[in-house]
Write a structure and sequence with these properties.
The protein is built from 8 helices and 10 strands. It is an alpha/beta fold and about 250 residues long. Helix 2 links the parallel strand 2 and strand 3. Keywords: Carbohydrate metabolism.
Length: about 250
């Protein structure tokens, strides 16, 4: 596992942006898994800005997001489809046929899960997967306790995130919400992974994920076993275990 520590937020965002661009430049038909959230918004903006200044060939690149919300309209601004479209892919001119995403509304999410995983596999599998890490160690929407052997499935959200989505959408408590997510086994099949975390609030869970035991109680800890994983941290996120990584 490679550990990279950025000196500041600007450098952090630029590093991941150039990892994404570099993957596309290295392999034109790269399959790239993205993630949404506060950690990734600025890096998507930087990729878009660099593309506008110095266009690079994305005509064969394929993209997907590691997860998607369920039982909400795709038009919801907080859906992963809408965020990746507005933050990045609309700027790059990537059509929907090269943006592999499950439906947000379906009568059969088990089928949608299989179709989502199959579509990535049919394109050759992920060359690069960008991941964030949740406050409880989740990757994708695989919460603590998710079996390491899990395939793509619909997971419950963590309670903090679900409460925020309900506030933003006005969805009542009786309306079931979840997250269709690549399973942990599926994520681990990615040829290259970048786990990105910034902020002091992520320091303790980063310590557990990188220095603690590999355990389903901390889903991100499985990344210790991946043969090509880079962990990108800012100084605050690395602070609890900083001495080890200096």
């Amino acid at each position: 596992m490679k550990i990279t520590i950025a000196e500041n937020e600007k450098q952090f965002d630029e590093i991941v942006a150039w990892r994404i661009i570099g993957q596309i430049l290295e392999k034109k038909n790269s399959v790239i898994g993205l993630s949404t959230g506060q950690t990734t918004t600025n890096m998507h903006r930087i990729v878009s800005e660099l593309y506008e200044l110095h266009p690079f060939d994305v005509s064969e690149a394929v993209f997907f997001n590691v997860d998607e919300l369920t039982n909400l309209p795709r038009s919801y601004a907080g859906s992963c489809y809408a965020m990746i479209r507005s933050q990045l892919l609309d700027h790059l001119g990537v059509p929907d046929e090269r943006f592999l995403m499950p439906l947000t509304e379906s009568d059969d999410f088990e089928l949608e899960s299989r179709k989502f995983e199959d579509s990535i596999r049919e394109h050759g599998g992920a060359d690069l997967q960008i991941l964030g890490i949740g406050w409880n160690g989740h990757i994708g929407i695989n919460q603590p306790g998710t079996p390491f052997g899990s395939d793509t499935w619909v997971s419950p959200m963590d309670e903090i995130f679900e409460a925020r989505v309900r506030r933003e959408t006005g969805v009542p408590d009786g309306h079931e919400l979840g997250g269709l997510t690549l399973g942990i086994r599926t994520i681990m099949q990615s040829r290259r992974i970048i786990l990105a975390a910034k902020g002091a609030h992520k320091a303790e869970i980063i310590r557990q994920a990188l220095q603690g035991p590999v355990t389903e109680a901390v889903p991100a800890s499985i990344l210790q076993l991946h043969p090509n994983c880079e962990v990108l941290l800012d100084r605050e996120a690395a602070s609890t275990a900083l001495r080890k990584f200096q």
